[in-house]
Amino acid sequence: MKFFHVGDLHLGKQLHGYDLIKDQEHMLEELLSYIKKEQPDAVLIAGDIYDRAVPSGTAMQLLEHFFIQADELAKEQKAVEIILIAGNHDAAKRLQYGSSFMKRHHIHIAVMPPQQEDANLEQVTLTDQEGVVHFYLLPYTKPGMIRHWVEQEELANTQDAVKFLLEREQIDWNERNVLLSHQFYLHANEDTVLCDSETPSFSVGGLDSIATTFVDKFDYVALGHIHSPQNLGDPHIRYAGTPLKYSVSEADQNKSITVVEMGKKGEISYHYLPIHPLHDVRALRGKMEELAAQCTEIPCHDYVSIVLTDEEAVQQPRDYLEKYYDHILEIQIDNTRTRQIMEEEIPALKEMSLEEAFMTFFQESTGRPMNEDEQKKFAQIIETL
Ligand SMILES: [Mn+2]
Question: What is the pTM of this model?
């Protein structure tokens, strides 16, 4: 049994105002070409299919296009089962739309934990020469999503909810079992590697985290939610990470598709297929002229975050650098002067009123104080906020 594991596609996402849809289309094309080449039995997508609860039409079309292309492959090779769960960014009901129809085309979508006492986790069972493999689908879960039918009082946190849901499943541990889950797991209190594109709602060691001991018995745990690819203790519990770099903090990461191959119970191996993005995300640092000289292909289309270290004032750096880098995410200046501002003036700024702070900023950037007319206009704008 061979399957791919990806997660956190965040279709429709923007990066510093740039629409990433072409990048995501390119990434899904590569995923399809890997499916064609490696012929996995299944592709697991561990939540956060879309970036927003109300995805854009383009993002929805992109997912549909991927489904159709994957289904088309079945004409030439064995059908690939696409198994996906909802993440915290997905709106359950919207993602569920059309799912019973899609099941006929080997697409399995689970959006909510069981909603009544006699319900169980959704499950997909596939068979190979070694027997069956059960895929248990645990979409993003909060205690509030099951409290209406769970009688026990002790659903104090997410871990309680997940533990409760897993313990009531009739799992035959002699067979091969895989779990898909979109939550914040922690292994033996080791630090899980976080980055800037995740929702900043994680409370490390807080109410949301789940110990990996509760899922350790599964032969493989395909996780989503954390955007940096990583194993939790052992490669059989893994965050695949986002397929693209969704923040500058991920500039040095290598994004990939996790490929899991299972033989008999207990036999498992892994490899990772590199994803080649349409545009890279890079962090550049140096003097303006140096960064221009470094640019080999002009203009470079990578998404770049720039830190300028020129000591002398640079005139309109964005206009200048855009000739070389046409997807600039941000430009920051780090020199003796800006460091001094950080150390001395920022604390003073915090003491100021909004008007005072803006007037200081105005003087800094134009070299003259605001005149009376400008002050009046500014006051009007503030009033409308
Ligand atoms: Mn996510």
Answer: 0.86
- Ligand 1 centre to CA of 327 (Å) is 23
Please give the distance of CA 245 from its chain centroid, rounded to a whole number.
Answer: 8
Cβ atoms of 87 and 112 within 8 Å: the answer is: no
What's the CA-to-centroid distance between 314 and ligand 1, angstroms? Answer: 38
Q: What is the mean pLDDT of residues 212-237?
A: 95
Which residues are CB-neighbours of 5 under 8 A, at least 6 positions away?
44, 46, 220, 222, 238, 240, 257, 258, 259, 260
Q: Residue 186: phi, psi to the nearest 5?
A: -125, 135
What is the H or E stretch that residue 230 is in?
strand 230-232
The Å distance, Cα 73 to ligand 1 centre, comes to 28
Q: How far is the CA of 98 from the centre of ligand 1 (A)?
A: 23
Q: For tokens 């190979």, what's the residue?
A: 128
3: how many CB neighbours lie within 10 A of its CB?
A: 24
315 CB contacts (<8 Å, ≥6 apart)?
Answer: none
**Average pLDDT rounded to a whole number, residues 145-167:** 88
pLDDT above 90 covers a percentage of the chain that reads 70
Chain position carrying tokens 């541990």? 173
Residue range 99-124, pLDDT digits in tens: 989 998 999 999 999 999 999 999 99
pLDDT digits (tens, 9 = 90+) for 365-378: 888 999 999 999 99
CB 134 within 8 A of CB 125: yes
Q: How far is CA 104 from CA 71, 100, 143, 350, in A?
A: 10, 7, 32, 60
Burial bucket for residue 42 (CB in 10 Å: 0-12, 13-18, 19+): buried
HSE at residue 299, side-chain half, CA atoms within 13 A, is: 15
Distance CA 96, CA 248 (A): 32
- Cα 244 to Cα 155: distance, rounded to the nearest angstrom: 35
| Model pLDDT, residue 202 | 57
CB-neighbour burial class of residue 327 (10 A; exposed 0-12, middle 13-18, buried 19+) = middle
| Dist. CA 374–CA 356, nearest whole Å | 13
